[in-house]
Write a structure and sequence with these properties.
This protein has 441 residues and is α/β, with parallel strands linked by helices. It is built from 17 helices and 14 strands. Helix 7 links the parallel strand 7 and strand 8. The structure holds uridine-5'-diphosphate-xylopyranose. Its EC number is 1.1.1.22.
């Protein structure tokens, strides 16, 4: 099937390549010339495991191309809208300029019977508004949120754990005829192997839009819950990692997303919970989500606590102390530095008078662009040269596997802060390190 993907960021680029892998003929469109040039020559414009291989394989088939010219979407039967919805400057709400601009540009090329598929994360109510604008074209809007995680984007797109279709519904809440027809088109798009084994939830627009923000709010809440427990552990001498193991054995709770540490960052969870709170306020139900404000503050408190911990291990002051920060990306296997806890702690320590050097296997370039005042190094050993304190802030495998003896050779003082609770305290202490972590004795 011929289809277009508007917006080629983490979501769109992976989606476009995945659709071509399924055998479709895909054109990806983005306003960013550099991004389009990279993708068109088979290169991934950001670090995402498996994407270069997927792009290489699908570009070679001739079924996948990228362009900045939106007119090239003409002739596509399905149009995926995958543009970003960042947090507005100075407020909590999501900025819809990219979604609206994509829609404006797309409308003249849409034909009767086409299906426009919204995949961006949007404030509930957006789909209804866009569907009204689309109505005169005779095309149908389906809201089909995407749940991919960075670092696992290819796997999550090709093997989703569920599919959600939000369809236009009539007065009795059943899909309209046009909705059923659009569903059949999308079923064909996602036909095996993508949809194999993935439960399909068919619902209305509002539910489909809410599913995405509800899922991300739940995940953020789970992380902040365990980080709140970490605060209790710190006050009592308990160990949050053992606590998480023990409560996680209960199937109803589950161990995943109970890793205490520096908390969540990235381009999704922080801005999604904030946009959700803002939307709830507009809908007059802000009380329903007031707990998310607490989820947000627990999360931000971890960053402050880490700076305090650095001060504690440096006998009360980090002024003039050398700190090596291992990690710049908001999570491992990504070069994304948006709202990265690692960088926000690094910047805060620098502001408070420490000499900070940051390293990351993939994210240094992005980090330097956003934080030009920070100093960067090529490796953990280089960053840790003469350091008084080493902070593990992003749990890349190469940092998790660091040898305390080897690292101990280059530092000025053997002090390690484990911001992700991934190191073995016994091993590090046996090598003469002062080991401190969030939520561990
Ligand atoms: C998230 C959702 O998981 C995904 O479904 C959605 O589509 C987009 O948002 P992503 O932002 O890629 O994906 O990262 P995720 O793996 O969810 O991690 C988010 C943040 O939480 C990271 O900063 C991570 O370090 C942190 N985290 C995660 C924890 O602090 N503890 C945990 O136990 C898990």
């Amino acid at each position: 099937m011929r289809m277009s993907v508007i917006g080629c960021g983490y979501l769109g680029a992976v989606h476009a390549a995945s659709m071509a892998k399924l055998g479709h003929e895909v054109v990806g469109v983005d306003v960013d010339t550099a991004k389009v040039e990279a993708l068109a020559s088979g290169r991934a414009p950001f670090y995402e495991p498996g994407l270069p291989e997927l792009l290489g394989e699908t570009s070679a088939t001739g079924r996948l191309r990228f362009t900045t010219d939106l007119a090239e979407v003409a002739g596509s039967r399905v149009h995926f809208v995958c543009v970003g919805t960042p947090q507005k400057r100075g407020e909590f709400g999501a900025d819809m300029v990219f979604v609206d601009a994509a829609f404006d540009a797309l409308l003249p090329f849409v034909q009767p019977g086409d299906v426009v598929v919204g995949k961006s994360t949007v404030p509930v109510g957006t789909a209804e508004r866009l569907a009204e604008r689309l109505a005169p074209t005779g095309a149908t809007l389906v809201w089909n949120p995407e749940f991919l995680r960075e670092g696992f984007a290819v796997q999550d797109t090709l093997h989703p754990d569920r599919l959600v279709y939000g369809l236009p519904t009539g007065d009795n809440a059943v899909p309209t005829e046009a909705g059923e027809a659009a569903k059949a088109v999308l079923d064909e798009v996602y036909a095996t192997p993508l949809a194999e084994g993935a439960p399909l939830v068919v619902t209305d627009y509002a539910t489909a839009q809410l599913v995405k923000v509800a899922a991300n709010s739940f995940l953020a809440t789970k992380i902040s819950f365990i980080n709140a427990m970490a605060e209790l552990c710190e006050a009592t001498g308990a160990d949050v990692t053992r606590l998480a193991d023990a409560i996680g054995y209960d199937d109803r709770i589950g161990r995943r997303f109970l890793n205490a540490g520096l908390g969540f960052g990235g381009g999704c969870l922080p801005k999604d919970i904030r946009a959700f709170m803002a939307r709830a306020g507009e809908l007059g139900v802000d009380q329903a989500l007031s707990f998310l404000r607490e989820v947000d503050s627990i999360n931000m408190r971890r960053r402050v606590r880490m700076v305090d911990l650095a001060r504690e291990v440096c006998d009360g002051s980090i002024v003039g102390r050398r700190v090596a920060v291992l990690g710049a990306a908001f999570k491992p296997d990504s070069d994304d530095v948006r709202d990265s806890p690692a960088l926000s702690v690094a910047a805060q320590m620098q502001l408070q008078g420490a000499y900070v050097t940051v390293t990351d296997p993939q994210a240094v370039e992005n980090a330097r662009a956003k934080w030009p005042d920070l100093k960067f190094a090529e490796s953990a050993l280089e960053a840790a040269q003469d350091a008084d304190v080493v902070l593990l802030a992003t749990e890349w495998r190469e940092f998790r596997e660091l040898d305390p003896e080897v690292l101990g050779e280059v530092v000025a003082g053997r002090r390690i802060l484990d911001g992700r609770n991934v190191l073995d305290p016994v091993r590090w202490r046996a090598a003469g390190w002062t080991y401190r972590a969030l939520g561990r004795p």
